[in-house]
Amino acid sequence: MTDLVDLQAPAPARRTPRSLTLSVGLVLVGLHLFVALLTLFWTPYDPTAMTGGRLEPPSWAHWAGTDRLGRDLFTQIMIGSRIALTVGAGAVAIAAAIGVTLGVLAAFATRTLDDVLAATFDILIAFPTLLLAMLVVAATDTASLFSAILALGIAISAIVARLTRILAKRVLAMDYITAARTAGSSWPSIVFRHVLPNIWPTLSVNFALQFGIAIIAEASLSYLGLGAPPPNASWGRLLQEAQGTVYTAPFGAVAPGIALVSLVIGMNLLADGLRDVGDPTRRRSR
Amino acid sequence: MSLLRIENLTIRTGGQALVKDMSLVIEPGARVGLIGESGSGKSLTALAAIGLLPPGLKPEGSILLDGVQVIGASEEKLKALRGRTAAFVFQEPLTALDPLMKIGRQVAEPIARRHRRDGRSAGRQEIVAEVRHYLERVALPDIDRIMNAYPFQISGGQRQRVAIAMALACRPKLLIADEPTTALDVTTQAEILELLSTLVREEGMALLFISHDLPVVAKVAEEVTVLRRGQVVEQGPVRSVFGSPQHEYTKMLVDAAAAFDRALGAQQ
């Protein structure tokens, strides 16, 4: 009898080949990561040195042309990758630390505390991310790379907290949590063994999405002069500098734009692909 | 000393009483059935017994589990009782198992916890050996594969066996089975009932078997309590309660079961 039952069980899932989405995402993000690491050791030119004429179009010597001071744009865009990835990773790390902690806390809290926390998340989310980040930057006096990371991290943490709270609440209502409690599990063990692993697939996808949003937000902050100050070559600042000459030297705006878009799209594709990999019940479907 | 002694238990939410003046005694090693329609308060009674009522539900009366008063007890005290004194098997084995944890790790958890409580650290090898022991105990085939499988990769009957193994691994004095066969097909149901009866007898555990299904209860229990709308309507040995039911509701249950048997007989 047991043999009969056994035959009906599905075969153990094998690791499915990575989906196309995931591959393209990995390639785009990987490329930026490679370039970012490369700039730590080598760049084609000194990013602050005047190495050519002003506003030169792309050429073999200057792949993306030069800016209005004659500096190599490609070098600056490469360094921009490093800035963007640093800001994205830093902001998501801060948002994850604050957001997941508060979200789980709210899910476990008494009714009143939960209501207060949930309302706080909602109010913070009601502020546009960029506006919130600008407020934080303003509060930190001087614009620096760190203040931009902190600002975006705090702004995004509300989104992460709200998502975590909802996901954790859903998991806490599951039978296997009751089962674990009836068997004598403590709350910390339930959080680390059951809640976090079960919300992780969804959370990680969201982190990748927020990573992309943080990069765009950093570019916006820099564009407004609130991000990393010169000589940090943020893409947002490159775009802002190219604005005045966009009709005479369009490539100055197009090149950092392409860099920005490729990284953000890469992150979003990665997020999509991660969704399939993170959940074992979905692995077999592709 | 009785293992579980529930006296005049009333469970309220708002102004409404979900369980009224309920009393139930389980002696060590006894097999007790709790029968009633859905919403009659069976599961609430069981959850109240280990102090796990959902928030908003207030128990009154007295519940002595292994000599400890459960009502009003601290979470610390209750945690020590859970698993060690009473362990649960639930109705729907798919949702009662963590979907993202491999079976082997899930069964290892209560084992590791039991060792921690006993104040000794067990090595990985030792725990794995115990996991295998309990999976063998519930007659699962192909244990190596099952230990490395996720819950969705094994059948419903196998999942319920895993859930039973997890409860056994706590080495409880009382096993509370809340509709453990309701989500299973009929043949698997019979196997699981058989398994539960054997295990309870062999391990010397008491069993509280909750069901809405009279023939199922009659198969595993020696004593039965019939609940209706939160109140006990009849209580006693299975033979006398089902043999000569006194209350209208019990009569109805028995008649319904008998009518089914007659219909089967007429077919043959």
Automatic annotation (TrEMBL), chain A:
<dbReference type="InterPro" id="IPR035906">
    <property type="entry name" value="MetI-like_sf"/>
</dbReference>
<feature type="transmembrane region" description="Helical">
    <location>
        <begin position="116"/>
        <end position="139"/>
    </location>
</feature>
<dbReference type="GO" id="GO:0005886">
    <property type="term" value="C:plasma membrane"/>
</dbReference>
<comment type="similarity">
    <text>Belongs to the binding-protein-dependent transport system permease family.</text>
</comment>
<keyword id="KW-1003">Cell membrane</keyword>
<feature type="transmembrane region" description="Helical">
    <location>
        <begin position="246"/>
        <end position="265"/>
    </location>
</feature>
<feature type="transmembrane region" description="Helical">
    <location>
        <begin position="20"/>
        <end position="42"/>
    </location>
</feature>
<feature type="domain" description="ABC transmembrane type-1">
    <location>
        <begin position="81"/>
        <end position="271"/>
    </location>
</feature>
<protein>
    <submittedName>
        <fullName>ABC transporter permease</fullName>
    </submittedName>
</protein>
<keyword id="KW-1133">Transmembrane helix</keyword>
<keyword id="KW-0812">Transmembrane</keyword>
<dbReference type="GO" id="GO:0055085">
    <property type="term" value="P:transmembrane transport"/>
</dbReference>
<keyword id="KW-0813">Transport</keyword>
<feature type="transmembrane region" description="Helical">
    <location>
        <begin position="145"/>
        <end position="164"/>
    </location>
</feature>
<feature type="transmembrane region" description="Helical">
    <location>
        <begin position="203"/>
        <end position="226"/>
    </location>
</feature>
<dbReference type="InterPro" id="IPR000515">
    <property type="entry name" value="MetI-like"/>
</dbReference>
<dbReference type="Pfam" id="PF00528">
    <property type="entry name" value="BPD_transp_1"/>
</dbReference>
<keyword id="KW-0472">Membrane</keyword>
<dbReference type="InterPro" id="IPR050366">
    <property type="entry name" value="BP-dependent_transpt_permease"/>
</dbReference>
<feature type="transmembrane region" description="Helical">
    <location>
        <begin position="83"/>
        <end position="109"/>
    </location>
</feature>
From TrEMBL, chain B:
<dbReference type="InterPro" id="IPR003593">
    <property type="entry name" value="AAA+_ATPase"/>
</dbReference>
<keyword id="KW-0067">ATP-binding</keyword>
<dbReference type="GO" id="GO:0005886">
    <property type="term" value="C:plasma membrane"/>
</dbReference>
<protein>
    <submittedName>
        <fullName>ABC transporter ATP-binding protein</fullName>
    </submittedName>
</protein>
<keyword id="KW-0813">Transport</keyword>
<dbReference type="InterPro" id="IPR003439">
    <property type="entry name" value="ABC_transporter-like_ATP-bd"/>
</dbReference>
<dbReference type="InterPro" id="IPR027417">
    <property type="entry name" value="P-loop_NTPase"/>
</dbReference>
<dbReference type="Pfam" id="PF00005">
    <property type="entry name" value="ABC_tran"/>
</dbReference>
<dbReference type="GO" id="GO:0016887">
    <property type="term" value="F:ATP hydrolysis activity"/>
</dbReference>
<comment type="similarity">
    <text>Belongs to the ABC transporter superfamily.</text>
</comment>
<feature type="domain" description="ABC transporter">
    <location>
        <begin position="4"/>
        <end position="254"/>
    </location>
</feature>
<dbReference type="InterPro" id="IPR017871">
    <property type="entry name" value="ABC_transporter-like_CS"/>
</dbReference>
<dbReference type="InterPro" id="IPR050388">
    <property type="entry name" value="ABC_Ni/Peptide_Import"/>
</dbReference>
<keyword id="KW-0472">Membrane</keyword>
<keyword id="KW-0547">Nucleotide-binding</keyword>
<keyword id="KW-1003">Cell membrane</keyword>
<dbReference type="GO" id="GO:0005524">
    <property type="term" value="F:ATP binding"/>
</dbReference>
